[in-house]
Design brief:
The structure holds 2 protein chains of 2 kinds. By secondary structure, chain A is an alpha+beta fold. Chain A contains 9 helices and 17 strands. The two termini of chain A are 35 Å apart. The chains are: A alpha+beta, B alpha+beta.
């Protein structure tokens, strides 16, 4: 059994490699003979079965009208192959830049489709599902979009697009997979932090915190230890003197510039921190305030504007290349992470 | 008018937007597919099917709540149960077709998802075949063609995924369907001619005898109170040798030699050994084209041998098939006039042919006994019976009184009114009561020539029954007691006289006017057309297929090679189809083509790796990689000497393509000239 699943995986991989070679990731696909796959649908097998039953009946009753009908239907079936194939042939599909989205929402991937001749009922989707049906394609470019769910933040390549048609009879379907060299960003899901602690600001005494010590962070006082406080900031000297557990409370003097920092949210999971910072960045950008983001391995300028906001959000989205294993699995199944 | 998605567990991948509209299409197909079958099936089936269709239609139209699931299931099971009860185990053509029609009609209530719609359309194709089992006329063929177009259009409509059902869309689908089906015709002709056929059915279709008009496999004299005249064609004959005289035109179907006091039936039979045929006369050839009658027997002249259909002769010299004939068929007969095949009879046959119930009909027995005593021979006795019937108050009528009790006595002694069955039955009974072997023969008598063609037509109304009586040293001899009735005692209205049964026509000797009325002429033309239809189409079979193979000098091909040939034909058909469709794809309009040329110039001028690749990829495709302004500015950049002309061209182009009122004007020659002038770099 296990061998069988392994064989299946191996076969799948081989097929994917072959497919990727055959249909490379480019900006624009023109569907020609090499790219189009064609096979009967379930209904097509039903149709074949029906034709076979009629053929047996016609033979048994030696009924020439039934023979005529059966051969007519057979010819119609074969003609459908030509028509369905032609309905896929010469389609010219290109993908347009994709707007970034927040995790949990969905992105809209837009495509421009054009052709030298008429096409009917072209379906677009992801992985053998259909999201959009385009009833008509002509010489003028037709715009079609499919929405892709974005459960996890990150930088993605547009997954394989499934393009299919069953026109005219639904007994044959022609399809292709289109790989585009199109990428998109998924920012962390913005979540409002419980208290807007960034205004108060606080500092840490770990490696990154050291580098921003000079910005005027100073010791504010001691407070009672609460579960979740960083062990690094526990006043161990006081503990040794048996005065109980206390945490050093570090604060930054207030200023007009907003700094959203990793260490503003101590004892919170990294993803949630990113979500909080994302929310704050969005809020700040809405007010057109000057802000900066400091997270491990990234530190922005203190600036404002759309470009700055985008830069910050992208940094948040791509935080931690060595993200947990299940995350990377998710990403691989959707696309390729940079 | 919304499509009801009543509690479906499974959802469609991509439900059709127009489902309510497509549903009406499906209901129309169901109605049209079931309609002609209603003439052949029991009325209650039609009632159930059409109420299901009407119910479903009004359910959508007037938003009626669907009936509960258990009610629907109950209806299906109840109908099936009635069918099983009526047809004793669902075997046979009528039972099978009834079941198919019922289930198909009831499917109307159950159509919910995309798949149901496709299934309903597919079964429409199937029901057309069921129809062909009953009727293979030109009309039905035309009806079937129209139905196939409508069903196929339904499929096309479904898979077009249109969002609005307009009349234009409907016509578009119908047009597309007609186009596809017309294009499928050539290959279907090839397949029809060359696809290997079998000359025998794959398995025997045993079924209980269905009630048909004309001849049936048993005879109940006196049980029918009114004989309806059925003018439809039973079979057609073409004579190649001499044409039999009218008193030889007795078409035997079956010999009834078993009598139980009420009905004559077919007794036990053994196979007739054809080697027994000893005759000096030369055979006269004829060819019979028999309409589908769903019975095993074949019609033939007396003393005939049949070939070309695989029939076997029985020892009573009747010919039948091992299966029921439910198609139009053709066979050849060789007829030996003035001869007798069987001059000897064995013990068993003698017993069979003198068998009657021990008691019953005492008056007839007694009457015969008395007459027999006065006669010296069987022939003399028969002459006396003929005289008695001719002189006595015997009447020919199609509305005889129903005979009760001793049916022979009731007819022969009391009522003395009847048609062929009554007379044949009485004579055979009489002879058997005297120990003379005798038997009832049923079939057809006569045949009218189609004056516009050289074949004869025998109609259902020509069905007849007569007798064969064993004469010592002569063997079986035909006697037709119906012909003994005096012409003055034939009760027929004028209307009946025109559409006459041949048996009665002979009696009263009505001479029809020699010139045919227009109506009659049209009737014969139509019949001639039907016969040609049979000739051309319905009689194509395995034998003729071999003829065609021989014509194409492929006589010794085995099935394997023929299969290969067919596959090659199909592949060629698909390839030609694709090539033709792609070739015929509409051309880009002239402006776009010009713009494409301009872009190609730029790519050539750029002459780098990227541009070469792009050129390679875009041989067949418009290059709309950039807007027109970019293209023109690039052109100007590459060809600074022609800058003024290029700018002029840009203005012309932009005006033609993007002006508020889009012009359909042709591309000015100057623009083409400009492209030519620009030197390729």
């Amino acid at each position: 059994m296990r061998f069988f699943t392994q064989f299946k995986q191996w076969r799948q991989q081989l097929f994917q490699r072959w497919l990727n070679k055959r249909i490379p990731a480019v900006a624009r696909h023109v569907l020609r003979y090499r790219q189009i796959f064609i096979f009967p649908t379930k209904a097509g097998f039903g149709y074949a079965g029906l034709v076979l039953i009629i053929l047996i009946g016609a033979t048994n009753y030696q009924n020439n009208l039934a023979f005529a009908l059966v051969f007519w239907l057979v010819s119609l079936g074969f003609l459908a192959i030509a028509y369905t194939f032609r309905n896929m042939l010469d389609l010219d599909v290109r993908s347009t830049p994709i707007q970034a989205a927040f995790a949990g929402d969905s992105i809209e991937a837009d495509f421009l489709i054009v052709s030298t001749h008429q096409h009917r009922a072209i379906a677009l989707g992801l992985e053998r599902t259909i999201d959009t049906m385009i009833p008509h394609i002509e010489a003028r470019p037709t715009r079609a979009s499919i929405s892709i769910k974005t459960p996890k933040r990150g930088f993605y390549q547009l997954p394989k697009i499934y393009i299919e048609t069953q026109y005219p009879l639904g007994i044959i379907h022609a399809w292709s997979w289109l790989r585009f060299n199109q990428t998109y960003w998924v920012y962390p899901k913005p979540i409002q932090p419980p208290i807007n602690r960034s205004i108060e600001g606080n500092s840490d005494d770990d490696a990154e915190a050291e580098s921003i010590q000079g910005r005027g962070d100073d010791f504010h006082g001691l407070k009672q230890y609460e579960p979740g406080d960083s062990p690094k900031r526990i006043d161990w000297k006081a503990y040794a003197r048996e005065r109980g557990l206390h945490t050093k409370d570090m604060r930054t003097p207030q200023s007009n510039a907003l700094w959203f920092r990793w260490q503003d949210f101590p004892g919170i999971s990294p993803e949630l921190r990113l979500s909080y910072i994302c929310f704050l960045v969005c809020e700040a950008a809405k007010d057109d305030a000057e802000f900066g983001v400091i997270i491990p391995a990234f530190k922005s300028e203190l600036s404002h504007g759309d470009a700055h906001k985008r830069q910050c959000l992208e940094a948040l989205a791509s935080y931690g290349d060595d993200s947990p294993a299940e995350d990377s699995f998710e990403k691989k199944s959707q696309g390729i992470k940079r | 008018m919304s499509f009801r998605q009543a509690k479906t567990v499974e959802h469609d991948r991509f439900p059709w937007v127009e489902q309510a509209f497509i549903l009406n299409w499906v209901l129309t197909v169901q109605f049209l597919a079931c309609l002609p079958l209603m003439f052949y099936l029991k009325p209650w089936i039609g009632a159930v099917v059409f109420s299901a269709i009407v119910y479903r239609y009004s359910m959508e139209r007037f938003n009626i709540k669907p009936v509960a699931q258990w009610v629907r299931v109950a209806i299906v099971f109840a109908s099936a149960a009635v069918l099983v009860a009526q047809h004793a185990g669902l075997s046979g053509r009528e039972a099978g077709v009834s079941l198919a029609v019922l289930m198909y009609g009831l499917k109307a209530i159950e159509v919910k998802r995309n798949r149901d719609i496709i299934v309903a359309l597919f079964i429409g194709y199937f029901l057309i075949v069921a129809l062909f089992l009953y009727n293979q006329s030109v009309f039905i063929a035309l009806y079937a063609v129209i139905l196939v177009v409508i069903i196929t259009a339904g499929l096309i409509h479904c898979f077009s995924h249109l969002s609005s059902p307009t009349l234009n869309n409907v016509f578009g689908s119908l047009k597309m369907s007609a186009k596809l089906l017309a294009q499928a015709v050539p290959l279907s002709i090839i397949l029809f001619l060359f696809f290997p056929r079998f000359s025998e059915p794959l398995w025997n279709l045993q079924s209980k005898g269905a009630a048909g008009t004309g001849v049936s496999d048993s005879m109940h004299p006196g049980a029918i109170g009114n004989l309806a005249l059925d003018n439809s064609v039973a079979f057609r004959i073409k004579f190649f040798g001499s044409i039999p005289s009218s008193d030889q035109l007795y078409w035997r179907a079956m010999v009834l030699d078993q009598f139980d006091g009420k009905a004559w039936t077919v007794g036990e039979r053994s196979i007739f050994n054809q080697a027994q045929i000893q005759t000096n006369s030369t055979p006269e050839a004829y060819e019979v084209t028999i309409e589908s009658h769903n019975n095993p027997w074949l019609y033939h002249l007396e003393h005939s041998a049949i070939e070309g259909i695989g029939a076997t002769p029985k020892d009573d010299l009747s010919w039948s098939l091992d299966y029921k004939l439910s198609r139009v068929a053709r066979y050849r007969g060789a007829w030996y006039p003035d001869t007798s095949f069987d001059k000897t009879m064995n013990q068993k046959q003698w017993a069979q042919n003198t068998q009657i119930p021990v008691t019953g009909n005492p008056k007839t027995r007694q009457w015969a006994k008395r007459l027999w005593a006065q006669s010296n021979s069987t022939v003399e006795f028969l002459a006396k019976v003929e005289q008695f019937i001719n002189q006595g108050p015997f009447r020919y009528t199609l509305q005889p009184p129903i005979n009760r009790g001793d049916i022979i006595d009731d007819f022969f002694i009391n009522s003395r009114q009847g048609f062929c069955e009554h007379y044949a039955s009485a004579l055979v009974y009489m002879m058997r009561s005297l120990g003379v072997p005798a038997r009832v023969v049923v079939g057809y008598q006569g045949g009218e020539k189609n004056p516009l063609d050289d074949y004869y037509i025998v109609r259902q109304k020509d069905a007849h029954a007569w007798t064969e009586i064993w004469l010592p040293n002569q063997g079986w001899k035909r006697y037709d007691p119906t012909s003994w009735i005096h012409p003055s005692r034939v009760d027929l209205s004028l209307n009946q006289a025109v559409n006459q049964r041949s048996e009665a026509l002979n009696l009263i000797d009505v001479s029809l006017s020699q010139s045919l009325s227009y109506l009659q002429q049209a009737g014969y033309m139509w019949d001639s057309f039907n016969q040609n239809w049979n000739d051309l189409f319905l009689n194509y079979n395995a034998d003729k297929q071999i003829d065609i193979y021989q014509y194409f000098r492929v006589a010794n091909l085995d099935w394997y090679k023929i299969g290969l040939l067919l596959v090659a034909c199909i592949l060629a058909f698909i390839c030609i189809g694709v090539w033709f469709l792609v070739k015929r794809a509409p051309k880009r309009d002239a402006w776009e083509q010009w713009f494409h040329q301009a872009n190609l110039l730029i790519i050539k001028a750029q002459n780098n790796k990227v541009s070469k690749k792009a050129l390679n990829e875009n041989k067949h495709h418009p290059l709309i990689t950039q807007g027109p302004r970019a293209t023109f500015s690039q052109l100007a950049q590459f060809y600074p000497h022609h800058k003024a002309q290029i700018e002029q061209a840009e203005a012309v182009y932009l005006k033609a393509r993007y002006a508020h009122e889009k012009s359909n004007s042709a591309v000015p020659k100057a623009l083409y000239q400009l492209l030519k002038k620009l030197p390729a770099k």
